[in-house]
Design brief:
By secondary structure, the chain is mainly β. Helix content is 0%, strand content 53%. It has strands at residues 3-6, 9-12, 17-23, 31-38, 45-51, 57-59, 67-72, 77-82, 91-99, 112-122. The strands form 2 sheets. A 6-stranded mixed β-sheet has the order 2-10-9-4-5-6, with no helix packed on it. A 4-stranded antiparallel β-sheet has the order 1-3-8-7, with no helix packed on it. Strand 4 and strand 5 (45-51) form a beta hairpin. The protein is globular, with a radius of gyration of 13 Å.
């Protein structure tokens, strides 16, 4: 199983980007999909997650109200709509998957990681 992330790029402060994560095989209803990010010199940080089996979502406080996670079952794809971007959102964004509730921000709870996509927000 592979997770393919895309959609990163360079955007100005206040701008928007949408990241996509396509799973090579259909996730199970017991799976949760999500996003982490890692800024230069910092540890990986939880961003958002969503249950594949229902509509439960979970966000970090730093992105709540600005980012929206969603999914398209037919395409085995998870999206991260990022609005009102700030320079501190600059990071490599990783798509992740786990078995269980989406309500966890612990990096060790996610056992499948995709390659990252770089998001750069200029001031």
């Amino acid at each position: 199983v592979q997770l393919q992330a895309s959609g990163g790029g360079l955007v100005q402060t206040g701008g928007s980007l949408r990241l996509s994560c396509a799973a090579s095989t259909r996730p199970f209803s017991s799976h949760a999909m999500g996003w982490f990010r890692q800024a230069p010199g910092k540890e990986r940080e939880f961003v958002a997650s969503i249950s594949w089996g229902d509509d439960r979502t979970y966000y970090s406080d730093s992105v709540k109200g600005r980012f929206t996670i969603s999914k398209t079952r037919a395409e085995n794809t998870v999206y991260l709509q990022m609005n009102n971007l700030k320079p501190e959102d600059t990071a490599v964004y990783y798509c992740v998957r786990r078995t269980g509730s989406p309500r966890t921000s612990y990096v060790g709870d996610y056992n499948l990681w995709g390659q990252g996509t770089l998001v750069t927000v200029s001031s």
